[in-house]
Amino acid sequence: MALVTWIKQKDKIDGAMKAKVYSFFEKLQKDDTAPGLHIEPMHTPADPRVRTGRIDLNYRAVLFKVLYETIPHYFYYGAWPHDEAINIARSSVLKVNSVNGVLEVIRESTPDPVTTTPPQKEKKAGEQDSQAGDEKREPSGELWSNPLIGYGLVAADLVKDLGLDAEIVDHVFAASSEEDLFDVMAEAPEWQATALLELAAGTCIAEIQEKLSLTGYVDNPDESEEEKIRKALEHPATKMQFTFVGDNPEELKQVIEGGDFDAWRTFLHPEQRIYAERRYNGSFRLSGGAGTGKTVVLLHRARMLALSEPQSRIVLTTYTTTLADSLSTGLGKLDADLPRSAAPGYPGIYIGGVDSLVSRVLHGATDVEQRRAMKEVFGTESVIPGKVLDAALARHQWEAAINDVTHNLEPELANATFLQQEYETVVLPNFISSKDAYLTVPRTGRGTALNRSKRLDIWTIIAAYRNYNSIQMNCSFVELAHLATAVLRQRTALGGRCLADHVLVDESQDLHAGHWLFLRELADVHADDLFIAEDSQQRIYGQKVPLSRFGIAIVGRSRRLTLNYRTTQQNLDYAVRLLTGAAMTDMEGGKVPDSGYISARTGPLPEERSAGSFADELDVLADYLTQWRDEGVALENVGVLVRANYQVAKVVDGLKERGLTAKTASVGRDEPGIPTVMTMHRSKGMEFTRVVLFGISDQALPAKHQVSNVAPAERADALLRERSLLYVAATRARDGLVVTWSGKPSELLGMK
Fold first, then answer.
1. What does the record list as coiled-coil region(s) (predicted)?
2. Residue 385: DSSP 8-state
3. Which positions make up the binding site for ATP?
């Protein structure tokens, strides 16, 4: 029997090799002396523990063999063509860092930084320069300067205080371009590359030490190397790149077949691990930009709670059912054996969209509970309406109420958008059911001031709106959330038990006040009651409401993730720039930083293309898809994102006319070679290897119905949502990002 530890690969294993690698390790776990494995030591290696093993006739695995008493433990570093594997094996060393206790593999010689200018892309036959009306624009960058030098960092301090490899540090300081910097990082151990990224973003040494748990280690010269390695495997920064598989073939298979997209299942960043495993004396909020791994932390935390408290009732929820399904799939990949609950209130993990949770509570309520809830929310004791009011019908009801009653409100107040927000952020959360109560209620957080006369007119319209819905037995999702809150409050007031011990919330920036009231009632106020993942930069649905209003205290228990795992640095810079100048604030009104986000990945610059007409823009899109297909890009991993629903069919039909097949998001599974066209809203929570933001013109963004005829304060917030929507769409791209428009570009692109 042999034990195995897997070291995260810089080079992914392609599909054809996965089965061979698995077969090799399955045999190794059973008997490492089997002759077919050809486990062989090296001649004059840098590390005497290094071995190579035979994957097939052309490829060899590079391994390190460590003996724990009499049990062999193999550390798998990777598989390469024969000669390359031999060279890598001879120059690689497995060691425990003497400064911080992190286990790492260091290659004795690091290649010199490349300083030559990349060659210009050659034109294809018949290709012409860009013309007006069909222009290509690559966002230009300023002359690059090495940030480590600019911040005044000293190479010796990085070696002494952080434990960075001296040779790697020398090459980093010698880098003359961003490409050089990333080339050096690509050869560095995972934790060192992350530390260098943080340094390049301006993070101080002390903060990096805290994030990566690099303090407090004391090298014990009396300990054997084997014992040091065993202890180092438990270091959080080691776990970024090393995962212990042991002799379990199923776990090994999961790691091998997981691939790059599922690497988070086994390799957590130390900072992510801290937030996933630490206990908190109350509610906690984890914020961070798109792709920083908030959902990953949430899933690992759900697992930790379930394993440490087998009888606990855990609710894992998010804004939509689609996102909830994604959480369920992710949790299954993380640990298929975790106990699940079919309904909230029972031991195990229950996963569902927040509105689905609301519906469960209401459908499980008694007739008495429902009538009392209606009395508390609407002032009338009756049964809960049976029809859900959708957004379009709600807008129609507001407009009908505005037109049918007598009032003296100016157009920006006698407006469906303003009135609905007033209703959902002031009236419903305060459980107001009478005119007198509305006239005196504080309107904290509402940007537009109202005198008594205006409040009277607004209440007249709200009363009419409620009356129309009552007659038609309609109830909105927001109203249902408040009714469910009232039901839960009744139960606890009568001594009943809350439905959950722990509530974990993803995409919380999109929740409204009614959701927060409901979630607060799901669990008692106690340690680890609510764990909230949020990114205010992605707020495209919810309203800005401070959690403290709902009895959720997070002061002193709030942290931010900054390292992006999805998007390249180039795409990330572009997406963040779309928010420039916007007054982004978080749930508690604090300023959201628009800098400090870094990516561990690099790629091509985003491209912007203008076209003279919609047909020309379709030609541009078709050209990109054809080019990518010819380059071997899997088009099923390409997303074409538009602002409005009506654009989806037009793009699909337009591509069909140009000989290309595309599908809509409503078509279930991916089909090889077929890209997906969907709205930006629908793309939330998804990712693609390449993304085209199509139709980003001044006519599409910002959407006119969102920003027209509303009060200035409400317009500012609506414009912010449109910016956030564009940011969300741009951050769906892992590698390539293209932005196109016909006519004039959207003002949100920030062009002069």
1. none
2. P
3. 288-295
